[in-house]
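Quick one, probably user error.
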């Protein structure tokens, strides 16, 4: 009882504005509640250094449009507008318009999933890239699930479209994604890019990116309201998005690219009173009610 009365007194004191006020409640208790959404929710924005990196818009309760912006300082290095189409309650296509890593050319990805009609899971994905009306790339992704029904991996093969034979695809470029879980949290993502000699079948080059996550909390991941199907489809373009499958939040990330030194990132979380994170020390997360 004594501890309860002390805590109650401190909270009352925080509500009184004066020059000797206590620290911010988020610093004292590790939580912050700018919106107080008590019902179902979905992400509205992800903000870094005052800039909107991700914006999510709904239409009739479904994810309709997403805007992604990645910055190097104040310079935008990626900008995409994403439209999500449905057939009933299933995603039938995702259209991604904008600029992408490694290129300054704007273009459009059309991403079309194929479902197992019994399980409802996505078994493959067709991806086509256009600049203007010109078909540039064609890719097929095949998904593999483990015995528990969790996504274990994805193999994507990509062909450059030959205008003289636009439906005859030769696939020299491969990407292999592998996932590991601990319960409902992703512990590792490995994404391997390969270039294969289409005549000999020999791998000419290979580069691996590995993300290792640890020290998960027990609170809600901010991407919980985003469907796994959306995340799976988008992760064919941005493999780090597989991490959003997790139910909870990792305190540590170790990233390795090829033979480069390991880069370690530690996250410091603040939460709202419904156990969703509002900040990870680098990004702020804002939510909206989901009908």
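Nope, works fine. Designed sequence:
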């Amino acid at each position: 009882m004594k501890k309860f009365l002390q805590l109650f007194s401190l909270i009352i004191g925080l509500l009184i504005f004066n020059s000797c006020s206590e620290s911010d409640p988020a610093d004292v208790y590790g939580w912050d509640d700018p919106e107080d959404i008590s019902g179902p929710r979905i992400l509205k924005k992800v903000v870094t250094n005052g800039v909107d990196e991700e914006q999510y818009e709904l239409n009739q309760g479904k994810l309709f449009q997403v805007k992604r912006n990645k910055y190097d300082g104040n310079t935008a290095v990626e900008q995409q507008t994403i439209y999500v189409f449905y057939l009933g309650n299933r995603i039938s296509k995702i259209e991604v318009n904008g600029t992408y890593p490694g290129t300054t050319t704007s273009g459009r990805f059309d991403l079309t999933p194929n479902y197992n009609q019994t399980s409802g899971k996505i078994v493959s994905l067709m991806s086509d890239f256009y600049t203007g009306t010109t078909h540039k790339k064609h890719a097929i992704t095949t998904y593999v699930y483990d015995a528990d029904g969790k996504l274990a991996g994805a193999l994507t093969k990509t062909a450059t479209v030959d205008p003289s034979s636009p439906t005859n695809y030769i696939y020299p470029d491969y990407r292999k994604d592998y996932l590991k879980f601990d319960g409902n949290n992703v512990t590792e993502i490995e994404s391997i890019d390969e270039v294969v000699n289409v005549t000999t079948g020999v791998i000419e080059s290979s580069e691996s990116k590995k993300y290792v996550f640890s020290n998960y909390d027990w609170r809600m991941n901010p991407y919980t309201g985003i469907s796994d199907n959306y995340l799976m489809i988008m992760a064919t373009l941005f493999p780090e998005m597989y991490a959003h499958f997790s139910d909870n939040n990792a305190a540590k990330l170790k990233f390795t690219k090829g033979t480069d030194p390991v880069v370690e990132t530690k996250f410091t979380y603040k939460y709202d009173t419904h156990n969703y994170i509002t900040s990870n020390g680098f990004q702020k997360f804002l939510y909206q009610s989901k009908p």
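Residues 2-14 form the longest helix (13 residues).
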